[in-house]
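User: I'm curious whether this sequence folds into something compact or stays loose and floppy. Could you predict its structure so I can see for myself?
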Amino acid sequence: MILPTWRSIFTTSAATARRTFSSTVSLWSRPSIAPKPTLNLKHIRENPELYSQTCVDRNYLAQRNSPQEIIQKHEQWKEIQRNSRTLREKNNDIRTKLSHAKTFSGIEPSDAGKPSQDDGDLLRQARDLKAELQKIEAQEDVLNERMEYLAMNLPNLTSKETPIGAEPRLLGYIREPPQHPTTTHDLTWRNHVHIGTEFDLLDFSSAGTTSGWGWYFLKNQGALLEHALTQYAIKVAANHGFSVVSPPSIVYSHIANACGFLPRDQGGEQQTYAIAQKEEDTQSSTGLERNPGKSLAGTAEIPFAGMKANTVLNETQLPLQIVGASRCYRAEAGARGAETKGLYRVHEFTKVEMFAWTRGGGEQVAFDSMLAVQKEILETLGLYCRILEMPSQDLSASAIRKVDIEAFFPSRRGNNEGWGEVTSASICTDYQTRRLNTRLKPAGKTLKSEFPSTVNGTALAVPRVLAAILENGWNEGEKCVKIPPVLHPWMHEEREIRKKSR
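Assistant: Here's the prediction. I'll summarize afterward.
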């Protein structure tokens, strides 16, 4: 019988044992090219009640028991570590003896450490120990992956400024709307769908044929308004110190997941559009992923955050603030009906997004900067808006705090008194950077790297702002829509939109 060399026996490779052990266990699988997350499991174990209550407050009821399960899995992992210590020590002892014994290559051993058993017996013991340790390592891997999976799906903690529950808190107004009763006229001529259709700005019928419900064509001055709003929002943000970036619209699904965007929400509704691939295109002949799944980005926040994945930022670069326009894709656009009619809820739209990386503790400055951009844009567009501190149940998984600005839509007075969200800004602390392996190198050479915070905000979402301009800019006496002066440079200097004569 030909025995293997001691080096081949001690080579650690528990993959086969792990696959066998975990065949009936649901594991958290991550593509090999995906950033390796560094989650703060210790903080979760030390504060299980805090994380459980956060899940309840934010309506993540399926995750409320995850902190306790993480503690249980960690105790199991420690027990395995304790039980395997003797085996590992014995394994190390045999390695030491074999390293001093005469090898099969004919090289003489040193004088010290003469083996007490012949090489064949030692190699057989080593082979048996290796098999046992591989099984143990497989169990450890399964436990570690389960803890990572549970932690990955927990929402961020919640800020002290955030109201607990479902009701937002009013922070203020940008031009309070005029108070007058709703009339039949408000529900017809001042409806953006009516205005847009009559003035040949919007075409929902043709879009329904080409793409389905939730899509639309912007035409003539409607299309010009989209470009004007985009350019104006980027200009304002750039004037506030944001660098302009054009992001991709297709992202790896694991990047979206790391940012807190899962395929389905807590209610089971589909949130993202996954790009279909044949199984043979996603895996190689060895079973490894060849082309991991991709999705259409629901917001530029995702590619912007992924832009610095597996990257170490220098403290001197921060705050790093960027802004860019992109097409956004939302699979769940709301139920059909008057509340979602027209441009208010759509599956695809143009949005100008702001994103920033800051050192921990510097999030508020970036947050205030984004709010200043949002306020300037909406005020100069002449819209009536209110500013809300959003409640815990309205926060995304990654956010600890979110402020929304809602515009007034005259035709929607029967729903939420006419208010509808047009921008939002969120602080995400290190939730995304830990999952994307984005690190920060502090200025001090001896200091360890840490995880920066991220902040994101909508500078302008075109469809809703365009709809608000059509409704609020409607001049009944002249039967036209007044274009906000700040948009004139991108509107061929047109001051108003009138019905075209046929």
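Summary: The CA atoms of residues 22 and 301 lie 35 Å apart. The first strand starts at residue 169 and ends at 174.
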